[in-house]
């Protein structure tokens, strides 16, 4: 279900049943001559489109602008960079509305600088926003000393479950480290990411333009293939089926 298409009663029902709410966490960034600047965001929305066919979930509007950085190219390339502190506060505000609105099963799914599922500025900002919010929410709703009260004597028994408040919001990569290994690799605007995008949104990858790339990270985009892209989509889906619950 797309959140923007849902009516109030449908949203309330999803909250009560703890249906997963998924937020695509993307960027606008230069992806060589051959792939659209929305690649990081679109590969998430594309995989979620496929995951929706087999799993009940609410897909929230994507966060298009992010902490892209100018590591790949400057602003003249079309990359849009948001300062990490401003971004963290923005994510915090979105998550706060959801949590206080009764959503207790949120997944922030990222695909930018997530090699080996490592933590980088954008994903760290999401983690910090989530933990800060949950601490404030629990103190606000349960009072100071909530964790130390006897009401939470079963805290460790519930660790990692839906009853654990620190599991209300999870920040995960679109492709886990395990999925990346199954795919055979991971890159930026190279054959892997380009193939993933090609399988999901073929009109946003121009195979002819791959020949124009001279930068090291995009040179092997000439090896972009539908077969590899479909394999990567399947690897992502298999992992996300288990992670998103």
TrEMBL record:
Q: Which cofactors must be present for this protein to function?
A: Zn(2+)
InterPro entries, A to Z: Creatininase-like_sf, Creatininase/forma_Hydrolase
Pfam families per record: Creatininase
Q: Which Gene3D superfamilies has this protein been placed in?
A: Creatininase
- Do the record's keywords include Zinc? yes
Q: Which SUPFAM superfamilies match?
A: Creatininase (SSF102215)
Keywords assigned by UniProt, alphabetized? Hydrolase, Metal-binding, Zinc
Coiled-coil zones: none
Q: Which family does it belong to?
A: Belongs to the creatininase superfamily.
Q: What is the designated name of this protein?
A: Creatininase family protein
């Amino acid at each position: 279900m797309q959140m923007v298409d849902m009516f109030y009663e449908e949203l309330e029902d999803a909250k009560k049943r703890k249906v997963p709410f998924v937020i695509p966490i993307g960027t606008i960034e230069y992806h060589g001559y051959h792939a659209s600047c929305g690649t990081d965001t679109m590969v998430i929305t594309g995989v979620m489109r496929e995951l929706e066919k087999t799993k009940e979930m609410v897909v929230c509007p994507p966060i298009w602008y992010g902490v892209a950085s100018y590591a790949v190219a400057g602003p003249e390339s079309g990359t849009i960079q948001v300062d990490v502190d401003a971004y963290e506060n923005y994510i915090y505000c979105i998550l706060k509305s959801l949590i206080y609105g009764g959503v207790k099963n949120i997944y922030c799914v990222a695909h930018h600088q997530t090699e080996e599922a490592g933590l980088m500025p954008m994903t760290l900002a999401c983690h910090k926003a989530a933990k800060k919010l949950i601490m404030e929410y629990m103190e606000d709703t349960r009072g100071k000393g909530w964790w130390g009260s006897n009401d939470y004597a079963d805290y460790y028994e519930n660790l990692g479950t839906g009853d654990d408040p620190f599991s209300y919001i999870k920040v995960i990569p679109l492709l886990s480290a395990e999925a990346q290994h199954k795919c055979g690799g991971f890159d930026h605007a190279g054959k892997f990411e380009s193939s993933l995008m090609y399988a999901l949104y073929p009109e946003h990858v121009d195979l002819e333009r791959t020949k124009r790339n001279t930068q090291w990270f995009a040179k092997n985009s000439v090896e972009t293939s539908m077969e590899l892209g479909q394999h990567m989509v399947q690897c992502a889906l298999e992992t996300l089926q288990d992670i998103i619950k």
